[in-house]
Design brief:
about 130 residues; alpha+beta; Ubiquitin-like (UB roll); 434 Repressor (Amino-terminal Domain); three-stranded antiparallel sheet; elongated; binds zinc ion
């Protein structure tokens, strides 16, 4: 097998530890299998290791960013408004919050920020409803 990066022939099967980090959190994956280039160090995970790598990466991002759906539901309950009422205040579609809370759609970053702001200053919601 040829190295996809430098073209060197002589990829070596290796079992390694892979360290992942994201947003100040990190984790180590053990017994990761792949083919590694002896010349430039480029590596290709086998299917199973790649799946584990992708899952871990996704989990890490989720751990850092949090689950927005659960957060949104908590804030909405605290504000004592329905999904439709909140959507109206935000000027977005009626079913949007239902989708966010069920994790079907990922809310945009500005929406999450605005909601967190309202969480800290609930009276802002009244103002939004009158805009
Ligand atoms: Zn190489």
């Amino acid at each position: 097998m040829r190295c996809p990066s430098c073209g060197h022939t002589g990829m070596i099967n290796k079992v390694v530890e892979e360290r992942l980090s994201y947003g100040g959190k990190s984790m180590t994956l053990h017994e990761m299998n792949g083919q590694f280039c002896s010349h430039c160090g480029e590596g290709i995970w086998d299917e199973e290791s790649y799946r584990r790598y992708a899952e871990a990466q996704e989990g890490l991002v989720r751990a850092v960013k949090g689950e927005p759906g659960a957060d949104i539901r908590r804030i909405r309950k605290k504000l004592k408004v329905t999904q439709a009422e909140l959507a109206l205040a935000f000027g977005i579609g009626k079913v949007a919050f239902s989708r966010y809370e069920r994790g079907e759609t990922r809310p945009s970053a500005p929406l999450v920020k605005l909601l967190k702001l309202i969480d800290r200053h609930p009276d802002l919601l009244d103002e939004m409803q009158n805009m």
